[in-house]
UniProtKB/TrEMBL annotation:
It holds the Pfam family Methyltransf_23. GO terms for biological process: methylation. It comes from Spiribacter salilacus. This is Methyltransferase domain-containing protein. InterPro entries: SAM-dependent_MTases_sf. GO terms for molecular function: methyltransferase activity. Keywords: Methyltransferase, Transferase. The keyword Ion transport does not apply.
């Protein structure tokens, strides 16, 4: 039987439930330690299938899915996966160059990116927005005085962050608009999406945004700017225009079946068709 203290930090161990500890032991026994990235993705699919989750019906089954300890495992995995850590370093480097005073990581999970940012910007206020954070995540954040978990956005921020969030929600346009209202005019929203079938909880009805997200954001009033790894920064230009963004998103949904069969070049083809049909 695997001893958890070989793989889980002592501070985290103090906050595990019995069910969480048993799940982690089972996984570590199965894989001889931490799974690799593709195995993590496979593990994420297991409870989705077991709970019979329906991507078109975000009911109590999906709620139970996001409470499954596989998400704790994912949080611990990211804390030690070198590519994930390098992504955090690069995101943090970009954010430091913007010299923000107030930053929010929306849906920031275990808080690892927020801790990187808090350590790099000790005079900034850094918040992780999560209504139900894991107690272990709160304990880890407590070691960085300027980082805290909050249940919702309040006031204005210089930078908002949402990485690997919007592909999981049924209305990414509405949620982006709601959160962007808390971004000061001239502030930047760092968004990194994966509108692709990597894991089952990436909602397939959203895959059309893979070719149109920049256009939707621009219609909303968030000007696409520089690429940051697999994400992009969007600068708030003025008022948030939700109806215009929804209109652009609906056009994207209509265009996508015309190019979804392409083995490559979907993004370019989708952009060209949207220029023709989505004025």
């Amino acid at each position: 039987m695997t001893e958890l203290d070989k793989f889980v930090p002592a501070l985290v161990l103090q906050h595990l439930t019995t069910a969480e500890a048993e799940y982690l032991k089972e996984v570590f026994d199965r894989f001889g330690g931490y799974p690799d990235l593709e195995q993590i993705w496979s593990l994420m699919d297991e409870p989705w299938v077991e709970l019979s989750c329906d991507p078109l019906n975000m009911d109590e089954r999906v709620t139970a899915y996001y409470q499954h300890p596989v998400w704790l495992l994912n949080g611990l995995f990211v804390e030690r996966h070198e590519l994930s850590l390098e992504n955090r370093r690069q995101f943090t480097h970009w954010i430091v160059n913007q010299a923000p005073l107030r930053v929010a990581d929306f849906g920031g999970g275990f808080g690892g990116l927020a801790r990187f940012i808090g350590e790099a910007l000790p005079n900034a206020q850094v918040e992780v927005v999560d209504p139900h954070p894991h107690p272990a995540a709160i304990a880890l954040a407590a070691n960085t005085p300027n980082v805290r978990f909050v249940p919702e956005l309040t006031g204005e921020y210089d930078i908002l962050i949402a990485t690997d969030v919007f592909e999981h929600v049924p209305d990414p346009i509405g949620l982006t608009a709601k959160t962007a209202e808390h971004l000061r005019v001239g502030g930047q929203y760092l968004i990194a999406n994966c509108f692709a079938p990597v894991i089952l909880c990436h909602l397939p009805q959203l895959f059309h945004f893979n070719t149109s997200w920049d256009a939707v954001m621009q219609a909303m009033g968030l000007q696409p700017e520089e690429k940051v790894l697999y994400g992009r920064s969007y600068r708030r230009k003025g008022e948030i225009n939700l109806p215009a963004a929804r209109e652009k998103g609906e056009c994207s949904r209509r265009v996508y079946p015309l190019i979804s069969w392409l083995p490559r070049g979907k993004a370019r083809a989708g952009q060209l068709l949207m220029q023709i049909f989505c004025h």
